[in-house]
């Protein structure tokens, strides 16, 4: 009788009404599932902000399309890499200049290359520059408002220069410059850019624009990558920035 009364008293004091599991005083319940929020990702703040910068440009003239960029990758006051390729060939008649986060730009360039190649295999023809820009814009638009930082300028053989950024916006023009050094590059381009430029004059103008921007913008510098896109081939010409104003012949030439 005494044991039965003790049992009822114990259950009344320490047991929950809707469960058979008793919780002892000062004990930890190990059978509870951890509460999970709807968003499982945890955003970790950087200990200090990292400023990024670059100088890229593309313009149209009577002999084709010119695309150029510097080669410095910066992270705040640190020159992370002095030889980054910010102008990348997507296929034989399309190059892309990139600015923004280096990792994001590399990822989306590879995704764009894959999608264009798949389109070419399915339809047996290359996707147009406008179609490529529209495709990239649709793929980037869902990431609007996130930390994705991508700004790509598409320079293609059908004499079009189109800018696409990570919020899905598309801008088309005869001359486009992107990056922290773009105001200085625009100053040179606005003075010397004409439709009737020869190939050598267009190459010299693009080289001079990036070169002058590297002298005023702390986040741009090192070398200049320069592409000339025509209907027959795409060529890249590289000039060291410290020799840009003194060199008349470019020291390296590659044909893609």
Automatic annotation (TrEMBL):
**Can the keyword Nucleus be found in this entry's annotation?**
yes
Q: Name one GO molecular function term.
A: threonine-type endopeptidase activity
Q: Which Pfam families match?
A: Proteasome
Q: Looking at the record's lineage, which domain of life comes first?
A: Eukaryota
Q: What does this protein do?
A: The proteasome is a multicatalytic proteinase complex which is characterized by its ability to cleave peptides with Arg, Phe, Tyr, Leu, and Glu adjacent to the leaving group at neutral or slightly basic pH. The proteasome has an ATP-dependent proteolytic activity. This subunit is involved in antigen processing to generate class I binding peptides.
Its family? Belongs to the peptidase T1B family.
Q: What is this protein called?
A: Proteasome subunit beta
Origin species, per record, is Echeneis naucrates
């Amino acid at each position: 009788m005494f044991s039965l009364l003790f049992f009822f008293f114990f259950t009344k004091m320490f047991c929950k009404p809707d469960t058979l599991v008793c919780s002892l005083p000062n004990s930890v319940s190990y059978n509870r599932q951890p509460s999970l929020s709807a968003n499982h990702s945890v955003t970790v703040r950087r200990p200090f902000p990292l400023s990024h910068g670059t100088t890229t440009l593309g313009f149209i003239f009577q002999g084709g399309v010119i695309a150029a960029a510097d080669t410095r990758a910066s992270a705040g006051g640190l020159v992370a890499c002095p030889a980054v390729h910010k102008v990348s060939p997507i296929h034989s008649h399309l190059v892309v200049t990139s600015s923004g986060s280096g990792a994001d730009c590399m990822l989306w360039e590879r995704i764009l290359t894959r999608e264009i190649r798949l389109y070419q295999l399915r339809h047996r023809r290359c996707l147009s520059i406008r179609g490529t820009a529209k495709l990239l814009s649709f793929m980037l638009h869902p990431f609007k408002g996130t930390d994705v930082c991508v700004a790509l300028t598409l320079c293609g053989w059908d004499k079009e220069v189109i800018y696409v950024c990570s919020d899905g916006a598309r801008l088309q023009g005869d001359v486009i410059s992107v990056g922290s050094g773009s105001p200085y590059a625009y100053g040179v381009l606005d003075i010397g850019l004409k439709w009737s430029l020869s190939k050598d004059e267009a190459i010299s103008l693009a080289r001079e624009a990036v070169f002058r921007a590297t002298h005023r913008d702390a986040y741009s510098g090192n070398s200049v990558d320069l592409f000339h896109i025509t209907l027959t081939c795409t060529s890249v010409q590289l000039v060291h920035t410290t020799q840009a104003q003194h060199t008349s012949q470019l020291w390296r030439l590659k044909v893609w």
